[in-house]
């Protein structure tokens, strides 16, 4: 006789209707997908803000290095341009830090995973509800396994001869089954009612965060327009087209090549 371990202790009676089990799997599957998407979004937002900070810090480093260039000591006009550039980069870095702090507070922190309270309530940190949700599902599964075990036990005694000792064991098995069945049905019903509510609440939670993200970006780029507008005015030179800039650079490079120290051997 072949041994099928997962059949041991399984009741013959279908204790959870297939339609109910399908509904549960569908709703829980949607929340599992939402959890993965939330984790990915939080991670991507963190990468984005880290890259933003690295960009503005690098710009400040470049302007600082230019200020220490000996050419600034020799050319007052160049010093003025570099000083204006350095001021602009430091202003940009300051506003960028403010933007990142705002995004951290209004988007990244609310998405973080952490230790949550009751999963059914949308907590301050959206990701914190998922561990509690998964634990509730795990407890439901554990109760279901116990329910199946006790139901199989009841069925076993029901199939035996209804003698005095047999009836006593059947009665005891039914008494053991009753609270476990009630516990499972309560857990199952609560999850089936609250999982769709939680899933449908996601837009209510995410919308304010991403409105704050957009506002932070709008404020930042408005400030950048002002900063670089001021920088353009301080430079006081009309922008060259790519063609004119290339022609000008080639002319100066030609002058350098004409020097004897860089001439061909």
From TrEMBL:
Location(s), subcellular: Cytoplasm, Cytoskeleton
Coiled coil: 24-51, 133-160
GO terms under biological process: actin cortical patch localization; cell division; developmental growth; endocytosis
Keywords: Cell cycle, Cell division, Coiled coil, Cytoplasm, Cytoskeleton, Septation
Any one GO CC term of the record: cytoskeleton
InterPro entries attached to this UniProt entry: AH/BAR_dom_sf, BAR_dom, BIN3/RVS161-like, Bin3_BAR
Keyword set includes Oxidoreductase: no
Keyword Isomerase appears in the UniProt entry: no
Residue span(s) of domain BAR: 9-244
Superkingdom assignment: Eukaryota
Function: Involved in cytokinesis and septation where it has a role in the localization of F-actin.
Record's protein name: Bridging integrator 3
Species the sequence originates in: Gallus gallus
Name of the encoding gene: BIN3
């Amino acid at each position: 006789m072949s041994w099928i371990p997962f059949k041991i202790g399984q009741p013959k009676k279908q204790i959870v209707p297939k339609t109910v089990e399908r509904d549960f799997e569908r709703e829980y599957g949607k929340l599992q997908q939402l959890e993965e998407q939330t984790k990915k979004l939080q991670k991507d937002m963190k990468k984005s803000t880290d890259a933003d900070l690295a960009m503005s810090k690098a710009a400040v480093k470049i302007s600082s290095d230019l200020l220490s260039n000996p050419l600034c000591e020799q050319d007052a006009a160049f010093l003025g341009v570099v000083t204006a550039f350095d001021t602009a980069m430091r202003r940009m870095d300051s506003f960028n830090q403010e933007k990142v702090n705002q995004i951290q507070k209004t988007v990244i922190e609310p998405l973080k995973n952490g230790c949550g309270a009751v999963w059914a309530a949308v907590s301050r940190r959206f990701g914190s509800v998922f561990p509690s949700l998964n634990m509730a599902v795990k407890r439901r599964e554990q109760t279901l396994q116990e329910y199946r075990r006790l139901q199989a036990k009841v069925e076993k005694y029901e199939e035996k001869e209804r003698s005095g000792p047999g009836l006593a064991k059947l009665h005891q098995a039914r008494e053991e089954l009753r609270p476990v069945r009630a516990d499972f049905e309560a857990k199952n019903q609560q999850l089936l009612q609250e999982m769709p509510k939680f899933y449908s609440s996601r837009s209510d939670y995410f919308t304010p965060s991403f409105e704050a993200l957009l506002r932070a970006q709008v404020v930042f780029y408005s400030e950048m327009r002002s900063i670089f507008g001021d920088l353009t005015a301080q430079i006081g030179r009309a922008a060259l087209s790519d063609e004119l800039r290339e022609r000008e650079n080639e002319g100066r490079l030609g002058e350098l090549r004409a020097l004897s120290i860089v001439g061909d051997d």
